[in-house]
# Entry
Amino acid sequence: EPDEAAARAVRARQANLTKPPGSLGRLEEIAEWLAAWQGREMPAADRVLVAIFAGNHGVAARGVSAYPAEVTAQMVANFSAGGAAINQLARAFGLALKVVPLDLARPTQDFTLTSAMSEEDCAQAMECGAQALDDEIDLLCIGEMGIGNTTAAAALFHALFGGEAAAWVGPGTGVQGPALQAKVEVVEAAARRARQSSGPGEMPPLGALRQLGGREIAAMAGAILAARHRRVPVLVDGFVATAAAAVVHRMAPGAIDHCLVGHLSAEPAHERAVRAIGKRPLLSLDMRLGEGSGAALAVAVAKAAVATHSGMATFESAAVSRESGAGS
Amino acid sequence: EPDEAAARAVRARQANLTKPPGSLGRLEEIAEWLAAWQGREMPAADRVLVAIFAGNHGVAARGVSAYPAEVTAQMVANFSAGGAAINQLARAFGLALKVVPLDLARPTQDFTLTSAMSEEDCAQAMECGAQALDDEIDLLCIGEMGIGNTTAAAALFHALFGGEAAAWVGPGTGVQGPALQAKVEVVEAAARRARQSSGPGEMPPLGALRQLGGREIAAMAGAILAARHRRVPVLVDGFVATAAAAVVHRMAPGAIDHCLVGHLSAEPAHERAVRAIGKRPLLSLDMRLGEGSGAALAVAVAKAAVATHSGMATFESAAVSRESGAGS
# Structure
């Protein structure tokens, strides 16, 4: 649970730093959030890990993506060779990068026909996600790669939060027109099948994950849960990563209080999704790439929060006058 | 003028990088903007200067700020000692920092009574701003410090763009209640006096600057003009820096095309101001500190844009399949 004493210490220090109270805005909120979840008065953002999980999806055969399914494995090779966007962001901001391909040769099942994963499959993927936390880190970014996975994410949001399927479906990598309409129908069919299979009442979040998710989404959910136990705050990437956070969010109240969303995706339904999990993204730069790119970019904001919080002078040490009204 | 060939080269390269077209959002826009104004096909963001101009304001004696006027000089000392927020941000992101105090012992005149600056004063301050560009740099951040200067900025916006004075006035460092109402009245009185003094017709932008600005605002305007001549793109900081950009914007169409606004300030009128100059800020993190802090934080986004643009593999080099629809 959050360390309230650490959070109080951050607030007390903020009030003495040479700036008008509150004038660093969300940087102050982030410093307090980091301290509370790291359990120390001086937050850190030095050892940052970007964990990218990759999975393949049976539903990709239904033409829901602008790219062929082999691109998942090709992009994993590109991550290893250092050629992807996330490699450049990790290098620019000094972040460690771990890429975890999850059984790419064996896609999940087509979830319009049957459950995407068996219970064992889903649990194994979650455990893979948890293992990404094995090293000591200050902050975790979670991201993904998986052709077809915005369809899985949309189906999960639809099952977890209701509404029309069309409200959760968007272009992903770039589908439009009739293909986009087909994607909506795939999500409708999948959610209908999952509801029938899960029986009456609300679908349990882990059931929804198994029915409609994918291995990379299960792995991200596992990483979020493991991070909570290890006192590691998490920056969640875009649309698909938010689906993993949504699963954990529905498990218990406050279950993702140790998570922030790094970036609001250009995928239209992301705004609705982040509202549904009670988050306000740090950045909004029209990106829609995945790979943890939005979370990695948000690390710059976290580093700025830590740098200002730990490095600034106080009014006393710098001999700067306080507000005219204060102290009188 | 922007280098259209460089911009075209950026767009051509973007189309071949291993990502769905457009999926890096504003990072792609920034790479193109940097290349066009730097006049080279591969944009750079290595040598970045944060220039902070400090000025004192006669109008501060009217109680428009929550802080006493001596804080301007105290904060300049804090910048020199490395204790301010901007020092930590500059260190965190590897930015050079130049602090230029402008005749702090001699505040501008109270612009409710007479012109803030003489023509000579204003021209000298603009020249000081231009000199900040003396070294070779890839990107300039402009920021400021000056107790009372959100009042000057509000008066400038009111003179340049019209509307009600109250729509341009906000709490600044934290004034509220009757003091905030007094600040509105100060801006109204100043604008009325300036209009009478400037005669019929639209107030020329440099006239408005001299009448209602301050030395640090004039310096920022001078820096923006000099940056244009030297092919240096500019990241403009918050509310007060935007007032300098607004003066240049009113001089000629496209005069601030080489500028982006780094951060949307929590000062409520900043949103109206950035719309008036046709900009969309890169960040929105509820900050309202000045000191170039919002622009400095936005440098992280520019560095990310350059890193992805220059470092990513192409579809060909990484052997990643393109969109199914393409090339067929």
User: Anything to note?
Assistant: The CA atoms of residues 158 and 164 of chain A lie 7 Å apart. The beta strands of chain A are 48-54, 96-101, 139-145, 234-236, 259-261. The two ends of chain A are 39 Å apart (CA to CA).
